[in-house]
Amino acid sequence: MGKLTKRNILWIIPIGIMITFFFMFGPKKQIQDNAYIQYVQASTLDDFGTQKLGTLADACEPVKWIYFETSKNQDVVELQGDCAFADHKDTKIQFLVDNERTTIRPGAMLLDNKQLTPDERDAKLAQLLH
Fold it and tell me: How far apart are CA 32 and CA 80, in angstroms?
């Protein structure tokens, strides 16, 4: 092993910074079973009907419920699957949950990796949950 020179140090420092950023801000493990998911599945959205949100998964195959926290500490539960109501295209529906698990708001909705506008999303959810 050679001497520790200025050149070697200039290589080590950026690599160390990149590794640190990766572990701090890199991809996080997807959680598929926790209290937030259970709360969303058992809840309804009052503006969209009386059916529980868990019934959305009945039309999807395969279905995954995923919980994650955004970089702004927003708790998100996402339904993923190929759903019949979207012509069996890749579907992702996000629900934003507050920390106390008292309110749920609809978040983004993607059909075949195309994000719907809030009006389109609300119309689709109203159609599915009535």
Answer: 11
Tell me the one-letter amino acid at 97: V
Q: How many structural domains is the chain composed of?
A: 1
Q: What is the CA radius of gyration of the chain?
A: 20
- Asked if residue 130 lies in contact with residue 51, where contact means CB atoms within 8 angstroms, the answer is yes
Residues of the domain holding 57: 28-129
Cα 27 to Cα 39: distance, rounded to the nearest angstrom: 24
Question: Does residue 5 belong to any structural domain of this protein?
Answer: no
Around Cβ 125, how many Cβ atoms within 10 Å?
21
Strand pairing partners for 96? 76, 105
56 contacts: CB under 8 Å, gap ≥ 6? 79, 83, 93, 128, 129
Distance CA 105, CA 48 (A): 11
* Strand-pair partners of 76: 68, 96
Task: Tell me the pLDDT tens digit for each residue of 25-70.
Answer: 776 666 766 888 999 999 888 777 778 888 888 878 888 999 988 8
pTM: 0.73
